[in-house]
Amino acid sequence: MPVVTGLYTILIPIAVFACFGSSRHLVVGADSATAAIMAAGLAGLAPIASPDYVSLAGITAILCAGLLLLARLIRLGFLADFLSRSVLIGFLTGVGIQVAMGQLAGMLGVSGGTGGTLSKFFGTLEQIPDTSLATLAVSASVLGIILGLEALNERIPGALIAVAGSIVVSSAFVLPSHGVAILGPVPGGLPKFGVPSYGWNDWATLLAASVSIFVVILAQSAATSRAYATKYNEEFSENTDLVGLSLANLSAGLSGTFVVNGSPTKTQMVDSAGGRSQLSQLVTAFIVLIVLLFLTKPLQYLPEAVLASIVFLIGVELIDRSGMRRIMRWRMDEFLVACATATVVVVVGVKQGIILAIVLSILDHLRRSYHPRNTCLVREADGTLHSELVVAGQPPRELVPGLVVYRFGSIMYYANASRLVEDVRTIVGTGQPPTWLCLDAEMVSDVDFSAGATILDILSIVEGAGSRLVAARVGRNVRAELGRYGITEKVGEDAFFDSIESVVEAYRARSSA
Questions:
Q1: What does the DSSP 8-state code read for residue 400?
Q2: Counting C-beta atoms within 10 Å of the first and last residue's C-beta, which end of the chain has fewer, N or C?
Q3: CA distance 352 to 344
Q4: Which residues of 129-164 are buried (b: 16+ CB within 10 A; e: fewer)?
Q5: What is the pLDDT of residues 130-174, one digit of tens each?
């Protein structure tokens, strides 16, 4: 995209979201993940940075705005929950690695390779002998200034100082004459407003890219908003944020720029500088307006290596090393999933990475619900209760003599219904069958048709073993479902209890009678 469009993304869109979104902290603007997907979707449709390319980018932003508004109308904010935190950490880590690798060519002053991320990276390594020493010196200076000032005080705007200083040095010493590439003239003034007119014949291709971008915006923005709302004990509405994001992208498409997204990096930068409300975003938009009206001329002297170095550091910041280490310590299986997501992002692409992230998150959810943690409640000698896993072939311990309390650890649906049968066969078929088998349904929030039919089947198993099936802590909606399936009629209304204690009392009363 033309250089000035980067400023356009933090002029109107950032202000629009600040006014219509719910998050006090989320900063909306250009984002590496959505930009990469957009670049892949627009590849070959128009010459890079041409007016036609800009129009295609605007159409993509408008399509994303429509998808986000549709998501709000049908309340799809919950879809963000399908990206687990571990998968999202892996995804953003992969994006960070990809972004950082992609900036090395600009930092060295070489053309770099072509193709995918790895191909470009290895192509850059092959061109190291052709490195421009002047460009490398600029990059090293920028990194040194930013990291050095950050070490002194994180609130010192090192990147801003590096940009301003590099403009002065570039102008004074005519860096282009030493082989350092600069931005060149940057148009000033306000963006032109209007509906993009070119490229609507490519809407199918653009829509495919827009869907991928929509998912990234939905997931990344919601995750960032949620994280900062939790940090400051504040409330936010994912559906309200969808309206803000939709209007922000609509304003982007109508003002000659490209898709915008909630940026975790920009949000962290504002937060570390002390921003605690939408006022920070509105002030940013005002400053950008001043720059566009009066200060674009000095930007022409900005070395491209400075931008590459800053973006390189942003990519490094996206690599969540502490998060990955924490996942590895706590859950090795989720760590492997996070690593797989990051690897796909780097090796294959961002779009494929986000698709894999969603698929892996759903599969992980299904894996957990397919293997629920089913236990039996037992009482220790000191009177305390705890849970013991049901182990095939081993008779369970009874809560009181003749009473087994079996706790199913998930919703009951077609995929895990067989576990119910296996556990019941173990309980009543291993050793002496209990007089009563109590199903503790505290964790069961839903029973689908297959699971209902399975419960009817296990009734015959329990009764065949000479036991009685009762239930405790059954939710109102689950009671209604059991009634529709005919289970309540089979076991009787007196088989349902409000608590485990009431089951024990009823069992003892029945036994003494």
A1: B
A2: C
A3: 7
A4: eebbebbbebbebbbebbeebbeeeeebebbeebbe
A5: 999 999 999 999 999 999 998 998 778 898 899 999 999 999 999
* Whole-angstrom distance, CA of residue 354 vs CA of residue 346: 12
Boundaries of every domain in the chain: 4-367, 375-512
Per-residue confidence band for 444, with pLDDT thresholds at 50, 70 and 90: very high
Tell the CATH superfamily of the 375-512 domain.
Answer: STAS domain (3.30.750.24)
Cβ-based neighbours of 461, under 8 Å, separated by 6 or more = 421, 424, 425, 428, 429
Spatial distance between the Cα atoms of 95 and 75, rounded to a whole number of angstroms: 28
Q: Give the predicted TM-score (pTM) of the model.
A: 0.72
Rounded CA-CA distance 115/138 in Å is 27
SS (H, E, C) 259-286: CCEECHHHHHHHHHCCCCCCHHHHHHHH
Q: Is 222 exposed, middle or buried (0-12, 13-18, 19+ CB in 10 A)?
A: buried
- The residues near 405 (Cβ < 8 Å, ≥ 6 apart) are 376, 377, 399, 438, 440, 472, 500, 503
**334 within 8 A of 326, measured Cβ to Cβ:** no
Conformational region of residue 486, where left means phi above 0, alpha means psi within -120 to 50, and beta covers everything else: left
